[in-house]
Every structure is written in C-alpha cells, then in structure tokens.
Design goal:
The structure holds 2 protein chains of 2 kinds. By secondary structure, chain A is an all-alpha fold. In chain A, helix 5 packs antiparallel against helix 6 and helix 8 runs antiparallel to helix 11. Chain A contains 15 helices and no strands. The two termini of chain A are 29 Å apart. Chain A has one domain: ABC transporter involved in vitamin B12 uptake, BtuC, CATH 1.10.3470. Chain B folds into 2 domains: 142 residues, 3-Layer(aba) Sandwich (Rossmann fold), CATH 3.40.50; 166 residues, Rossmann fold (3-Layer(aba) Sandwich). Chain B has 15 helices and 13 strands. In chain B, strand 1 and strand 2 form a beta hairpin. Chain B is elongated and about 100 Å long. Classes of the chains: A mainly alpha, B alpha/beta.
Chain lengths: 340, 360
Amino acid sequence: MNGLKNNKRQKYILLAAWVLPSILLFLSLGVGTYKISWAEVFNTIRSALRANQNLNLSPAAANIIINVRLPRILLALLAGSAFAVSGSVLQSLFRNPLVNEYVLGVSFGAGFGAAASLVLFSRQFPPQVAAFLFGLLAVFLVMTISEGARNSMMAVLLTGIVVSAFFQSLLSGVEFMASPYALQALFFWLLGSFSQVTWPDLLWTGPMVLLGLFLLIRMKWRINVLSLSDDEARALGVNVKKERFLVIALTTLITSAVVSVSGIIGWVGLIVPHAVRGLVGADNRLVIPVSAGLGASLMLLADDLIRAFSPYEFPVGIITNLVGIPFFLYLIKRSKKSWG
Amino acid sequence: MVKTKKLFFSVCWPFLLISSFLSINIHAFSALSREKITIKDSLNRQVEVRVPAQRIICLQPELLRILVALGEGERVLAVDRFPVRYDHLAKIIFPEVSKLPVVSVTGEDANLEKIMELNPDLVLVSPSELNLTQNLSRKLNCPVISLSSSGRIDRLLEEIEILARLTGKEQRGEELKNFLVAGLESLKQKLNRPGLKKPRVYLSFWGSLLRSPVNYQPVELAGGLNLTSQIKPIHQGSDTAVLKLETLLSWNPDLILVHGLYPPEERKITVQQLLTDPGLQYLKAVQEKKVFYTFGFWYWWDPALVLVECYYLAWLFHPEEMSGVDLMVEGEKSFKKFYGQEGLFKALCDRIKAHEWFKK
C-alpha cells in the first residue's frame, strides 16, 4: 500500500518537475526592464506560433520577446537541465556525493579556450567554439591519462583535479598576457551570464544539449547499474568500460555546449541532484528526469530574479551560489542523521 | 720622507672622509633642499612630495601623456606595460617610451625590486589599481600618487595642475589648461542657440555593447545627454555601468556611440555589428543609422584628444552649428599645442582609421 502511495507521489513529482519549466517559461517572458503587458506577451506568442497573423503587435515589444527574452530563457532552461543532469549522473557514476558537473575539467578547459580566443586570436576563432573544443579536450586528457589505473574511478577523479589545475594555470597565464581591452571581455565571459545569447548560439548549442539529455535520460537504468560495483554491473550484463565512457562523453558534451555560451555557472549540478534525491530517493530512473526539470526551473528563476530586480546585468552564477549554498547546508543539516 | 708621508695622511684622511660623506648624501641633501607640498590624490589621500620631482615612475598612461605635454617625458624612468605594448597613441607622441623599462602590468602587482633599484622620488599610479597603490605606498620610501580624470574635464584640469606643480612646470601647465578652457568656451559659444535640442546618447564603451560610462563630460559639453548618467555605477568610485539589454532598448537613444580608440582589428564591438544586429533593429539610432565611433576613454584619457572629442561630438549632434569647423584642423591644433609637433593627430587617425568618422 505504502509502495503504491510512494509510486503515485513520485509520479506527481516527476509531472510537476516537467510542467514547472513550461509554466515558468511563459511567466518569464513577461519579466524584464522593458514594460510589456501580458496581452502583448500572449499575442506575440500566438503570432509567433502563426495562430493569428493579424494581431496589432508593437514591433519593439515583439522584438524584445522573440530576440532578447526567448533565447535567454531557453538557454537558462537548457543550462539548468544540463548542469543538474550532469551532476546527478556523475555523482552516481563516481559514487561520490561531492562530485559536480565540472569535476572532469570542463570548466577550466572551456575557460582557457574562451580566453585563448579572446586574447590570443582576437576572436578570429569564435570563443564559443574554442570553449567547447577545449572543454572536450580537458575531459579527453582526463580519460586518456587515467585509463588503465587499477582504481579507475578514483584515478579519473584525481586526474580531473590535476587537469583542471593545469588549465587553470594556462588561463591565469593568458590573463596575465592579456591587454586590458581583451581582459574586460574575458572577465565578462568567465563570470557566467545568459545575457549575451543569440539565436545562432542557441541553434548550435540547443541540439547538442537536447540530444545529450535525451540519451542520458534514456540510459537512466544503465546509470543505476553503473553506480553499483564493477563486478555487480558486469554480472547484470553491462559493458562497464564502454557504458561509462559513453555516459562521461554525454555529460561532457552537454556541459561543454552550455558553458561555451553561458560561461561558468556553478553549484547547480551539486544542489539539484541532492534536493531531488531528498524528494524521490536514489533511483536514477527518477533522479535524472526530475533533476532535468528542477535544474531548468531553478536556473530560470535565478535569471528571472536578475531580470526583474537588478538594474544591471548581474552574473547569474552569483545568484545560484547565494541560493544554492544555504540550501545545500540546509540539506546537510536535515540529512545529518541518515549520513551519520 | 716618513714625516712627509705622515703629514700627507693626516691631511688627506679627513678630506677623503668628508668628501665621501658628502657624495653619499648629496642626493639626500638635494632632496631635502626641495620644497615639500601636499597633494590630495584621486583616492582622497594626502601625500607629501618634495618638488620638483626628478625621478618619476609613471604607471598610468594618462599621466605619462601629461608629463610629455609638460615637456618632462625625460624624467620618466619606467612605465607600465600598457604604453609600451598596447598603446598605439603613446608611441606616436612619445617614441622614447619603447626604450623605458616596464615595471608593472595592468591589474597585476609591480616589480618592487626593479622600482627600488631605479630609486624614484615619485611614483604615479591609477586609482583603479587600488591594491597596487596600497602596496607601493607601504613598501616604497617615496610618495605614491594615484590620479585619474575618468572622463571628467574638471579632474583632467586638476591633474594637469597637480603634475605641473610636481614637476615645477606651473607656467606650462597653466598654458595647457587655458588652451583647453578657451577651446571649450569657444564650443559653448557655437552651441549657444536657444532651443537647441539635446540628443539622447548611449555610449557603448570598453569592448561591450552593455558597458557604459556614467560620466563622460564631452557628451554634455557637445550639447548631448548621456543616458547612462541617470543610473549608478557598478560600484562606488567606478565610472562603469553594466546595463541590461532591455534597459538600452527601453531608452531607445537618438544616437549610439561606440568606443573606437583602437585599431580596427582590435575592436570588439563595431558600428557595422550594431547596425546589422537583429535585436537592435527597432532602436531609433539603428533605424536612422546614427551609430558612430567615438574616441572615448579607458582608465586613461589623452588630454589632447579631449577637445577634439568635444568638437567631434558637437559636430555629430549639431551639424548646423558646427558646419564651419574642420575637425582635422582642430585635432592638429590641439596635438601641436600639447605635444609640440605637426602631424600627430593625422598619425593617430591613420592608425585607428578615424578619417572615415569625419566624413558626412
């Protein structure tokens, strides 16, 4: 009886986690400095969906909704999902609750790529592409160097720390060499924000993130198995090495794709999976999809706070940290007994 | 013979001792003999300095230019990396800068030992580098003064006056100040028509569409209104505001001015980019193609460019009032006055491709 109740509750949570971002998406379209009425928001959406072409729309308001707010909101949703899913998957894979989406060196790899593009090549090589490629390179180095170690998961974690430190040093070196002009642009990128996103950015990031998320959600059962010991996973018929590599490649793909456009935004991949496990337990069949929905909602809410209340463009990473760290401490306090 | 030797040593030893004592302390004596003045710098610190300063380390590009304009470039012993590596204008007005040792990098700490070795009697820094100012003040046995005009002409005039006092060039300083004040007064007369409409101007500075200065006096002096002046800077003491794109769109400025004091290949934001950006197509300035480059300022400002900038902006804002003004002539006049040579403004315009800006 209790099991049935739990199942029902979990289904409601899953449904809520997926419906919430859609509601927030619509509400967020009405949030911003530029005064736009809800009627205009609604009419613009109808017009964009070709439901009614004869609506009397203000071109300026329609431009803001379609070209300024919508890509930003969509990127916030994608980023939140990508970070939360990456975090939850990697925590299961490494059987370590302190692992986050940047543990394999993506952040500093991408940071160095963007820095090299902005400072050394004067944007001749787009910073988004450079960030993406160097994010992938960092993880490739981690996987190659740690391959063959006896305790492979521990080796991957340690190599991740070392490779991150290496790219962090390279990033510092580039910062030191940068002219003050380039440094300004670099700082803006490194702080992490959705304000600069355009439709072309979204068009090349979106498909990669959606594909990665889709595959990771599809692999949720296998991720459950990978969170067991290697012997147990093999006994259940899983090719541990191949599957693990695939999961890491997919988390790297979605994290790099987002970081390359948004810059480095922390904490989401750590907070959301823990909150979700508090709600639905440790089963990845629920943790991963619920994390995707809640991560998207959390990130969008954080960005909405900036768009609604801050007079300036404020790095969204600061909000996620300010909200996330106390929340994380609350979770630790609440779970003290079970952790003990 | 022995007696002669004894006599020689008894006379020479005291003489040698006194002369060596004097030679060691001659620098200290000369420093002590100089007048001591107190300067209030841009960080509101009271700094005591013996004037005229003879051995200057200048880590602020704007102050280096003023020293050159005062005719005291040769007193500069070392500089920061900016004028040597990135500053296309410094090399035009003061080619010797390339030979000076570099003792600091913008945003980083300075090479203290090298500075000490050069034995300066004055170090000039930028207030934007607060840590550097504090560190040098604590560790060096010489005054450290932090100055910047930050886009304000009253502060620039004050800077010229302070540096003129510090180098004992009060007369030359007064001459430069009078030139600036007279030029601005002449501009004021030109724009003195009742009912002259002030265009609402947005400034996109420092390599980003959304970074904008809260203070930029040339806009007001040229008869415009800097829209960013209505909001607060990102932090106390800063000149920068970082806007939200929607704020810019809701302001809907009459003109957008893009920071253009870089060679074209180094520009992060271009006029063409803004004119073709789909998100900006509903802005009045974009629709009417009123997006232009401007000289602007960084944490430094070129004193000779100030007047040219005011004239140029007035020419953009009020073309009828400024119809008789030749901007190249005004530019050359200002640069000749400050840096004493012909053709410097033209050289700058060649470097940053600014000739095109002055075409109707």
